[in-house]
TrEMBL record:
One of its GO terms (molecular function) is DNA binding. Residues 10-64 form the HTH cro/C1-type domain. Pfam families: HTH_3 (PF01381), Peptidase_M78 (PF06114). It comes from Bacillus methanolicus PB1. This is Helix-turn-helix domain-containing protein. InterPro entries: Cro/C1-type_HTH, IrrE_HExxH, Lambda_DNA-bd_dom_sf, Rad_response_metalloprotease.
Length: 383
C-alpha cells in the first residue's frame, strides 16, 4: 500500500471539497491525529479505516489509488529541512499534468522564449558578469526597454511559456522551486504564504527564472541542499532583471532631493522590489553604511526598528544572500498587496475547456484547487 499516494490523493480530494482536516476526521469517524498522519503519508491505514474515509467523503476507494507522477528534473532547495517536501513535489506534479492536459486538449500552447538563451549562457563563465548579462538578455527577449519596470511578473512569465504556480506553505525557509522543460515545464512555483512579503514573491519568481536560465545542469530532485554559488548568481540575476542598472541609477538620481528613507521607498515601489534589494544595490557601489543609515533614519521617523533577524545589517557588498529579500510582510515598509502578483493562464484554460465541454465543472474546480461552490461562483461571474 503506497502511503504517499493515498495521502496526496486525500489532500487533493479534501481541498477540492473545501474541507478542513478536522471536518474530514469528523465525517469519517476517526481522530484528527490519525487522519493527519494518513494524509501526510506517515502511517499506513487499515482497510477498514480507508473504507470509513471513502464513505465519509463520498468517494470511491480507487480514487485514493490514482498514480502520482514523480518529478525528476526539478530544482527544489530550501534553507531548512522540510517534512512536506514530498507532498509539495506531488502537488506540483499533478498541477503540471493538469496544465499540460488542458494545453493539449485545447491546442493552446505558449512557446518557451528563453530556450536559446539558456543554451547560450551555458558557455559563459559563472559569476557576476554572467548573472548581469543573463538579466539583460532576458529583458531583451521580452522586448523590455532598459528603463522599463516589470509591473506584472506573473503575466510576463506566463506569456513567455513558463507555467506559474502560487503555493502556500507555512515556511520561512522555502520560497520557491522550478521545473525544467524536460519534466513538463518550464515552470516556476512560488511560496505565497501570507507572512511572506509580496516583494519576496516577485523576487522569488525572478530568482527561479535565473535558475532556469543559468543552472539547468543542477535540476535533480535528489538534491536538496543549497549551492550558495548558484544562489548568489540567481539572486544577482533577479536583482538586475527586476531593476536594470541604468534604470536604477536614473530613478535614484531623480530622487536626489528627497530624504534617504523616501528615496529608498520610492525606488522600491517603482521596481516592486524589497527595500533591501535597493540597499544592496547601493552597497554594491562600495558604501556598506547604507544599511545602518537606513535603519537609523527609519527608526527616527517611525520609532520602529526594522527586524534584521533574517538578514544581518552588515551584509558584505559582494554577497547576495538567500535571505536578502525581506521575508515577513511586517518587516517590509510600504509593502505591496497580493493583487500585485496574480497568475491567470491556468484559469483561462479552465474556462475555455469548460465552455468547449472538454472538462466538467467539478474537474475545473479540482484543477484550480477550488471547492465546487467557489467554482460555481466564479463561473457565474464570467462575462
Amino acid at each position: 500500500m503506497d502511503q504517499k499516494m493515498i495521502g496526496a490523493n486525500l489532500r487533493r480530494i479534501r481541498e477540492s471539497k473545501g474541507l478542513s482536516q478536522d471536518k474530514v476526521a469528523e465525517l469519517c469517524g476517526i481522530s484528527r491525529p490519525a487522519y493527519r498522519n494518513i494524509e501526510s503519508g506517515e502511517s499506513t491505514p487499515k482497510v477498514s479505516t480507508l473504507q470509513n474515509i471513502v464513505n465519509g467523503l463520498g468517494i470511491n476507494l480507487q480514487d485514493l489509488f490514482q498514480p502520482i507522477r514523480t518529478l525528476e528534473k526539478v530544482r527544489f532547495r530550501a534553507l531548512k529541512r522540510m517534512n512536506s517536501r514530498d507532498q509539495i513535489l506531488t502537488e506540483v506534479a499533478r498541477w503540471l499534468d493538469d496544465f499540460n492536459y488542458l494545453e493539449n486538449v485545447l491546442n493552446n500552447h505558449v512557446e518557451y522564449r528563453f530556450k536559446d538563451l539558456a543554451n547560450q549562457l551555458s558557455s559563459v563563465p559563472v559569476g557576476p558578469y554572467r548573472a548581469k548579462y543573463a538579466a539583460e538578455q532576458a529583458r531583451k527577449a521580452l522586448d523590455l526597454s532598459g528603463k522599463e519596470p516589470i509591473r506584472d511578473i506573473a503575466g510576463l512569465l506566463e506569456s513567455s511559456g513558463i507555467k506559474l504556480y502560487p503555493i502556500s506553505r507555512a515556511s520561512d525557509g522555502f520560497f520557491g522551486l522550478s521545473v525544467s522543460e524536460q519534466d513538463g515545464g518550464p515552470a516556476v512555483v512560488v511560496n505565497v504564504w501570507e507572512r511572506i512579503s509580496v516583494e519576496r514573491w516577485i523576487f522569488s519568481a525572478a530568482h527561479e527564472l535565473g535558475h532556469l536560465l543559468l543552472h539547468l545542469e543542477a535540476y535533480d530532485v535528489d538534491e536538496s541542499i543549497e549551492d550558495m554559488e548558484q544562489e548568489v548568481e540567481a539572486n544577482m540575476f533577479a536583482s538586475y532583471f527586476l531593476m536594470p542598472e541604468k534604470a536604477f541609477e536614473s530613478e535614484w538620481d531623480d530622487t536626489y532631493g528627497l530624504a534617504f528613507v523616501d528615496r529608498v521607498l520610492k525606488v522600491k515601489r517603482m521596481f516592486q522590489v524589497s527595500y533591501k534589494t535597493v540597499l544592496y544595490r547601493l552597497s554594491e557601489k562600495g558604501d556598506s553604511s547604507v544599511w545602518r543609515k537606513f535603519q537609523g533614519a527609519y527608526k527616527a521617523r517611525t520609532g520602529k526598528t526594522l527586524s534584521i533577524t533574517e538578514e544581518p545589517e552588515a551584509l558584505p557588498p559582494n554577497k547576495f544572500q538567500q535571505s536578502m529579500p525581506e521575508v515577513l510582510r511586517s518587516q517590509e515598509p510600504d509593502s505591496l498587496s497580493s493583487s500585485d502578483f496574480i497568475e491567470d493562464r491556468l484559469s483561462k484554460l479552465v474556462r475555455l475547456a469548460i465552455e468547449k465541454d472538454k472538462i466538467t465543472l467539478s474537474r475545473g474546480a479540482e484543477i484550480l484547487r477550488l471547492n465546487l461552490e467557489a467554482m460555481r461562483e466564479r463561473v457565474s461571474s464570467w462575462e
